[in-house]
C-alpha cells in the first residue's frame, strides 16, 4: 500500500498536498510582510509629517520675505508675522501629539526642555511689546490733538480761522511726541510717558482678555517688566547656544530634533522682529542670529533678518523709539509740521495754508493707521503670550504623566 504521508510531510505523489504546501508558505510570507509594510508606511507617514512642517514654515516666511521696503516692519507686516508664528506653533504642537513617550527619553527630553525655557523667556518680550503698543496709543492721542487743533482750520478756505490758541495747542502736543521719539535712551521711554502723561499704576500684563481699559485713565507700564529689564539681553538669552542638530542627533531623536530647532528659530526671529518694530526697553538688536542654509525656511528668515538689521543701521533711525513703519511716518510728519508751525505768520498765506493742509492730512492718515492696527496687534501679542503659556503647561503635564 503506497505511503502518501511520511512523518507529517506530503507524499511526492500527492499534487493536492503540494498545492496546500504552496498556499501555506505564501500565507506565512504574507503574514510576515504585512507588519513590515505597515511599519514602513507608518515611518513614511511620520517622515512626511516632519517634511510638511518644514514646508509650512518655509511657505509662511517666503510670503513674509516678499514684502517691499515700504511694507517691512509695518503694522500689517508685524501682524502677519505673528499670525505665521501662531500657525507654525500649532503645527509644531501637532507633531508632539502621541510622541510624548519618545520625547520623555534622551536626547529629546533635553531638547524640548531647552525650547520650553527659551519660549518662557519670550513672555517678557510679549509683555514689553504690549507696553510698547500702549505707548503708541498715547502717541496717537497726542497726534489726534494736533489734528483736532489744526484740521478744521487747514481744511477751511479761509486763512484767518486759525488762531494763536490753536497753534499753541498743536505745538504743545507735538512737543510731547518729540520728547518720546527723540529720546536717546530707549529704556526711559516708558518712564517718561508716566511722568509727562500722568498714568496711574495698575499693571496687569495680559491678565484680562476682555480688556476693561478706560480711555480716560492710563495704566502704568513700567511695572510690567522691571526698570532694569533689557530687551537686548532677553533676545540674547533666547538665542544663546542655539545650534542646529547634527546627523547623529537627528537619528537619535527620530527626526524630531529638526522641528524643535526650527520652532526655536521661528521663536527667536519673531521676538527679534517684535523688539525691532515696537518701543521696548534697551532695544538694541545685536543678538546673535546664525542659521545654516540647509533648511528650506532658512533663506527667507536670514534674508528678512539682514534687511531688518540694515534698516536699523540707517543714521536717521538709530535713535528711533522703534522701526515700525508708522513710527517712522510719525517722526517725519511731526518734524515737518513742527518746522512749518515755527515759520507760520498769521494770517497764513495761501502757500502756507496749502502746506499745512497737506501735513495735517498726512498726520491724520497715520492716526487712522494706528487706530485700525494697534488693537488687532495687541490681541495677537496676547494670543502669542497665552499660546506659549498653554504649550508650556501641556508639555510639563504630558512629560510628568509619561514619567509615571
What is the topological layout?
Elements: E1 5-6, E2 9-10, H1 15-65, H2 75-96, H3 100-103, H4 108-155, H5 164-181, H6 189-197, H7 231-239, H8 247-252, H9 257-277, H10 298-312, H11 325-343, H12 350-403
Antiparallel strand pairs: 1-2
Structure, briefly:
Residues 192-225 are annotated as: Disordered. This protein is mostly helical and 404 residues long.
Parts with pLDDT < 50 across at least 5 consecutive residues: 1-30, 32-42, 184-205, 207-223
Order of helices and strands: EEHHHHHHHHHHHH
| CA-CA gap between termini | 68 Å
In terms of DSSP E residues, the strand content is: under 5%
Rough outline: elongated
Q: What is the CA-based Rg, rounded?
A: 31 Å
Would you tell me the structural class of the helices and strands? mainly alpha
Describe the main β-sheet briefly: 2 strands, antiparallel
Summarize the amount of helix as a percent range: 55-70%
Overall average pLDDT: 79
Strand order of the largest sheet: 1-2
Strand tally is: 2
Number of helices: 12
Coiled coil: 346-373
Keywords: Coiled coil, Membrane, Transmembrane, Transmembrane helix
InterPro entries: ROH1-like
Family: Belongs to the ROH1 family.
Amino acid at each position: 500500500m503506497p505511503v502518501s504521508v511520511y512523518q507529517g510531510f506530503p507524499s511526492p505523489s500527492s499534487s493536492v498536498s503540494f498545492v496546500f504546501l504552496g498556499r501555506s508558505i505564501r500565507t506565512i510570507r504574507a503574514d510576515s510582510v504585512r507588519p513590515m509594510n505597515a511599519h514602513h508606511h507608518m515611518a513614511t507617514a511620520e517622515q512626511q509629517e516632519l517634511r510638511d512642517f518644514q514646508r509650512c514654515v518655509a511657505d509662511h516666511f517666503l510670503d513674509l520675505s516678499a514684502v517691499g521696503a515700504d511694507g517691512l516692519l509695518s503694522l500689517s507686516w508685524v501682524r502677519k508675522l505673528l499670525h505665521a508664528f501662531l500657525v507654525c506653533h500649532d503645527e509644531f504642537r501637532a507633531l508632539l501629539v502621541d510622541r510624548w513617550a519618545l520625547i520623555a527619553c534622551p536626547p529629546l527630553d533635553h531638547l524640548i526642555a531647552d525650547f520650553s525655557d527659551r519660549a518662557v523667556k519670550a513672555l517678557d518680550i510679549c509683555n514689553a511689546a504690549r507696553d510698547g503698543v500702549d505707548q503708541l496709543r498715547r502717541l496717537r492721542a497726542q497726534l489726534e490733538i494736533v489734528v483736532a487743533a489744526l484740521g478744521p482750520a487747514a481744511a477751511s478756505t479761509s486763512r484767518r480761522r486759525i488762531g494763536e490758541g490753536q497753534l499753541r495747542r498743536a505745538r504743545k502736543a507735538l512737543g510731547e511726541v518729540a520728547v518720546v521719539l527723540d529720546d536717546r535712551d530707549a529704556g526711559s521711554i516708558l518712564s517718561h510717558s508716566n511722568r509727562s502723561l500722568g498714568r496711574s499704576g495698575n499693571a496687569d500684563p495680559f491678565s484680562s482678555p476682555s480688556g476693561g481699559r478706560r480711555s480716560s485713565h492710563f495704566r502704568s507700564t513700567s511695572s510690567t517688566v522691571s526698570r532694569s529689564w533689557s530687551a537686548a539681553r532677553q533676545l540674547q538669552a533666547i538665542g544663546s547656544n542655539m545650534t542646529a542638530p547634527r546627523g547623529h542627533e537627528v537619528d537619535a531623536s527620530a527626526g524630531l530634533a529638526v522641528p524643535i530647532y526650527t520652532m526655536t528659530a521661528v521663536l527667536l526671529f519673531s521676538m527679534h522682529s517684535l523688539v525691532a518694530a515696537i518701543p521696548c526697553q534697551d532695544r538694541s538688536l545685536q543678538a546673535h542670529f546664525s542659521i545654516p542654509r540647509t533648511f528650506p525656511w532658512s533663506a527667507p528668515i536670514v534674508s528678512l533678518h539682514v534687511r531688518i538689521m540694515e534698516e536699523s543701521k540707517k543714521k536717521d533711525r538709530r535713535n528711533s523709539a522703534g522701526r515700525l513703519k508708522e513710527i517712522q511716518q510719525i517722526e517725519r510728519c511731526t518734524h515737518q509740521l513742527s518746522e512749518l508751525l515755527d515759520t507760520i505768520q498769521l494770517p497764513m498765506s495761501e502757500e502756507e495754508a496749502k502746506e499745512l493742509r497737506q501735513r495735517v492730512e498726512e498726520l491724520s492718515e497715520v492716526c487712522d493707521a494706528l487706530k485700525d492696527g494697534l488693537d488687532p496687534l495687541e490681541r495677537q501679542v496676547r494670543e502669542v503670550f497665552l499660546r506659549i503659556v498653554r504649550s508650556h503647561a501641556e508639555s510639563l503635564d504630558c512629560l510628568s504623566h509619561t514619567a509615571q
